[in-house]
Amino acid sequence: MPGLALLNVPTALLASEGGGGGMHFPPIDHIVKWPAWFGEGTFYEFNKITFISFIAMLVPVILFLIAGSKAKLVPTGIQNVVETSIDFVEDQVVLPAIGPEGKRYLPMLISMFFFIWIGNLFEVIPSAHMPANARMANPLVLAVVAWVMFIGVGVKHNGLRYFKDALFPPGVPKALYILVTPIELLSTFIIRPFSLAVRLFANMLAGHILLVTFSVLCITLWSASVLAGVLVLSFPMLVAFTGFEFMVAFLQAFIFSLLTAVYIGGALHPAH
């Protein structure tokens, strides 16, 4: 299948560009831009990032369906993994940021956490080597979902007073509203979704580029038969950095979900 062959683009690029007798880094377009598998130039264009995003959506659904269909009183296997993940998001994200009333938002936050985490893990999966969130599209959509969610929660629970309390915080001298209100407008309703998207996108893209850089370095040293001592040092660094990317994949999913929960909690009680 031609599309599946494109999964090995980074490896092919390194091999072809690294064989010229020197250290050659692939152009940035080869790192973050992937050709369409079909539908190029249309709204339904399907490429590697789209494929990874679909997998990131399907894997949690399949895991939860399997866990639910074979539920036992004492969880084991996949059910244990799923229940532990739910407990983690509930105890470390929902309850600290929103409180007991935040349990109604647990399904959305769990879905968001799993989608981001699994999409990020493709950074270190062989033959993929590309996190879904290293392109701005996914983080931007997730940030818009979070933005719509916390504004919707604020309006639902407080009516239009939500905007009044958010833009004109109680207890602030009225003379300062000329400064405070524009700052609150920008920080709450504009900068929040933008910072959510950029934080996730920039961290995953930076990690992806660094991992490619270390990979090129190791391949170059290996093919050039450079001093064994240098290679012995470079390869463990690549392995260590790959392990670090595992942690970053989880951490970014946790931070994005936690901040979304914090914003929802703030929308429930905008005057606090």
Keywords for this entry:
globular, 272 residues, 72% helix, mainly alpha
Report what the structure shows.
The chain has 10 helices and no strands. By secondary structure, the chain is mostly helical. The protein has one domain (2-268). The longest helix has 48 residues, at 177-224. The chain starts with a helix and ends with a helix.
Q: What is the H-and-E element order?
A: HHHHHHHHHH
How would you describe the shape? globular
Kindly report the average pLDDT value: 81
What fraction of residues sit in β-strands? under 5%
- Judged by helices, strands and strand pairing, the structural class is mainly alpha
Rg = 23 Å
How many domains, in number, for the residues? 1
How far the N terminus sits from the C terminus, by CA atoms, comes to: 56 Å
Number of H- or I-type helical stretches: 10
Number of strands: 0
Nutshell version of this structure?
α9 (177-224) packs antiparallel against α10 (228-268). The protein has one domain (2-268).
Topology, pairings included?
Blueprint lengths: L1 H4 L3 H9 L10 H5 L15 H22 L7 H21 L8 H16 L15 H22 L2 H7 L9 H48 L3 H41 L4
